[in-house]
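Appendix B, record 7
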Amino acid sequence: MSTKKSDKEKVVRIPFTIYRDNPEHEKVYSILERQKNRNAFIRSAVLAYYAQGENGGHSVSTEDIRRIVREFNAELAETLFQKLAQLKQEECKPTENVTEQSPVQSGEEKKTIDFERLKNLF
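Structure tokens (predicted):
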């Protein structure tokens, strides 16, 4: 007995129907229309969909991204306020009186930091 497949067994056609009056089907049609190799594209899409299902079907959602951004913003804000507090403490430490090298002082004034406004940004 021969185990070699005949030409008919090597190729399988899988028909499917797209209804142009269905918006979801129309979107699929427009995507497939732009593909050079539709067969390869459909194979890749099916394999990717199947792999996603095997991995628990979990993909990163918009809500996941929002949650991560909120957590990191809170952490970033805390770190920022700690650094600012450190800098403020260092500014308040007494320093030695050192004579200034240049007799002319720059006309720029030190700008103060509006901590309440900064806190509301985060």
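Remarks on this record: The radius of gyration is 32 Å. The longest helix spans residues 62-92.
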